[in-house]
Amino acid sequence: MTKEQFEFLYKDVCDWLKFIETKITVLLTFETGLFYFVLKEFVSSRKNCLYYLGIFGTVISLAFLIYTLIPRINKSNTNPFYFMNWADKNFNPTNKIDISKCYENQIRDLAIVAKRKSDMMTKSIVIFILSIIVTIISIL
């Protein structure tokens, strides 16, 4: 691949990661608001096991979303494209770096992060929907 193709692919992967993180933030806001609405509107004196199971599931779903937004930093590589390496005062990239290899490694790392965030978001959505349904059923 040419340098221009790597640059395009790198930008595309970064844009996808930004898009997924934006969706997670919006979903976190939406889930929190809907959870509050359901708890406030469907207050019942008979709180059974299903009710608490629904609340527990919703809290787990929200925890998944918050977990995906927390950055996990791995400074084990010396890739100059990795932004945290530049924060290290002792970091000095050598003149003999292979730009193509650096792009390839960074694109792969970002794609893995985007996939993990997307998978965690999907799990959170499924758990949240089931939890809200269980909470509403328990109140009826």
Automatic annotation (TrEMBL):
<keyword id="KW-0051">Antiviral defense</keyword>
<dbReference type="InterPro" id="IPR043760">
    <property type="entry name" value="PycTM_dom"/>
</dbReference>
<feature type="transmembrane region" description="Helical">
    <location>
        <begin position="20"/>
        <end position="39"/>
    </location>
</feature>
<keyword id="KW-0812">Transmembrane</keyword>
<keyword id="KW-1003">Cell membrane</keyword>
<feature type="transmembrane region" description="Helical">
    <location>
        <begin position="51"/>
        <end position="70"/>
    </location>
</feature>
<keyword id="KW-0547">Nucleotide-binding</keyword>
<keyword id="KW-1133">Transmembrane helix</keyword>
<protein>
    <recommendedName>
        <fullName>Pycsar effector protein domain-containing protein</fullName>
    </recommendedName>
</protein>
<dbReference type="Pfam" id="PF18967">
    <property type="entry name" value="PycTM"/>
</dbReference>
<keyword id="KW-0472">Membrane</keyword>
<feature type="domain" description="Pycsar effector protein">
    <location>
        <begin position="8"/>
        <end position="139"/>
    </location>
</feature>
<feature type="transmembrane region" description="Helical">
    <location>
        <begin position="120"/>
        <end position="139"/>
    </location>
</feature>
